[in-house]
């Protein structure tokens, strides 16, 4: 009987766990839908920014901007170290999502070290356990991406870039694309004119830029970088939730398999107990009949 009771407790425990994993699956799917809708609402604005930067170069030709490398593709000489903006999750239970990002960062820093600006508590804790230093004052959450947070991060990194503390800034994030989640490394500063070529000659649509095209370009670059950081946030957040959905779906399937095995074991144990009881009752009845005959 104790074995049957133990199996029954395990079945109830797994059913309770399955309820939680199923709820986490539904929550993750809802978050993905909301985040993608938010990104789609802002995409036209940042697409217009790309076109406007291309127009500036078409009209003004060569523009001397600290945010752009030379036209021949060579890097300008800049002081400082490389900066890496790394986007991870705040929690686990998302398959290999966090580990893939951390592995990519380890590969990058092994080739060339730099300052790490980590978004997400999971990433900060993981790098701390590995003895890898991160910026201690950079503590942003990965949950519920917001454009104003992306702008705040953008201004912080651009300030360090302008002061010469950073000579480049790369974003390490997980792209939520049609081919599945892939960890990408994209440089957001310095930029190059080829990043903004649309293939159209926009110089015919003449514009005057006040006070100068260089200053206007500087302000537009701030908005562009903030937009890219925001899109990287949303992509990573969607990839995280999608990975969590897959992990919870696998957990639900495993729970079903375990419940099937435990149910079979429970029925067998219960049948054995019933058979034993029937045997004991039958044996007792036979013994009583023999005693009465004597």
Question: Which short descriptors sum up this protein?
Answer:
alpha/beta, Pyruvate Kinase, Chain: A, domain 1, 2 domains, 4 strands, elongated
Descriptive report:
There is one protein chain. By secondary structure, the protein is α/β, with parallel strands linked by helices. It folds into two domains: 2-19 and 249-293, Orthogonal Bundle (Helix Hairpins), CATH 1.10.287; 26-246, ATP synthase, F1 complex, gamma subunit (Pyruvate Kinase, Chain: A, domain 1, 3-Layer(aba) Sandwich). The protein is 61% helix and 12% strand. It contains five helices and four strands. It has helices spanning 2-60, 97-111, 121-129, 147-162, 213-293; strands at residues 81-87, 114-119, 166-177, 180-189. A four-stranded mixed sheet has the order 2-1-3-4, sandwiched between helices. It is elongated, with a radius of gyration of 30 Å. 26% of the residues are buried. The model has no long low-confidence stretch (mean pLDDT 84).
For the residues shown, what is the average pLDDT?
84
Please tell me how large the radius of gyration is.
Answer: 30 Å
Helical residue percent band: 55-70%
Number of domains: 2
Q: In terms of per-residue confidence, which ranges show pLDDT below 50 for 5 or more consecutive residues?
A: none
| Name of the level-1 CATH class of the largest domain | Alpha Beta
Per CATH, what is the topology of the largest domain?
Answer: Pyruvate Kinase, Chain: A, domain 1
Number of helices: 5
What gross morphology would you assign?
A: elongated
Distance between the termini: 35 Å
- How would a crystallographer describe the biggest sheet? 4 strands, mixed
Strand arrangement within the widest β-sheet reads 2-1-3-4
Work out the strand percent.
5-15%
Q: Tell me the name of the CATH homologous superfamily of the largest domain.
A: ATP synthase, F1 complex, gamma subunit
Task: Label the CATH architecture of the largest domain.
Answer: 3-Layer(aba) Sandwich
Order of helices and strands: HEHEHHEEH
DSSP E strands, number: 4
């Amino acid at each position: 009987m104790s074995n049957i009771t133990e199996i029954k407790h395990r079945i109830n425990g797994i059913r309770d766990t399955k309820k939680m994993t199923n709820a986490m699956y539904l929550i993750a799917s809802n978050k993905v839908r909301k985040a993608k809708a938010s990104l789609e609402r802002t995409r036209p604005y940042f697409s217009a920014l790309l076109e406007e930067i291309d127009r500036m170069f078409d009209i003004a030709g060569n523009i001397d901007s600290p945010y752009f490398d030379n036209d021949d593709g060579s890097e300008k000489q800049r002081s400082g170290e490389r900066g890496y903006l790394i986007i991870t999750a705040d929690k686990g239970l998302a398959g290999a999502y966090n580990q893939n990002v951390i592995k990519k960062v380890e590969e990058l820093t092994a080739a060339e070290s730099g300052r790490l600006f980590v978004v997400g508590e999971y990433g900060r804790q993981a790098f701390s356990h590995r003895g890898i230093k991160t910026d201690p004052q950079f503590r942003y959450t990965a949950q519920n991406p917001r454009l104003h947070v992306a702008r705040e991060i953008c201004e912080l990194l651009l300030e360090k870039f302008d002061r010469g503390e950073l000579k480049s800034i790369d974003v390490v994030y997980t792209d939520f694309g049609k081919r599945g989640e892939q960890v990408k490394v994209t440089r957001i500063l310095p930029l190059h004119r080829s990043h903004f070529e649309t293939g159209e000659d926009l110089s015919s649509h003449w514009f005057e830029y006040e006070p100068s095209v260089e200053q206007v370009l500087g302000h537009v670059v701030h908005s562009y970088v903030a937009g890219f950081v925001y899109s990287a946030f949303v992509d990573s957040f969607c990839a995280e939730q999608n990975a969590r959905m897959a992990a919870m779906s696998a957990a639900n399937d495993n729970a079903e398999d375990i419940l099937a095995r435990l149910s079979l074991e429970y029925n067998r144990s219960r049948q054995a107990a019933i058979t034993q009881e029937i045997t004991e009752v039958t044996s007792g009845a036979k013994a009583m009949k023999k005693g009465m005959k004597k």
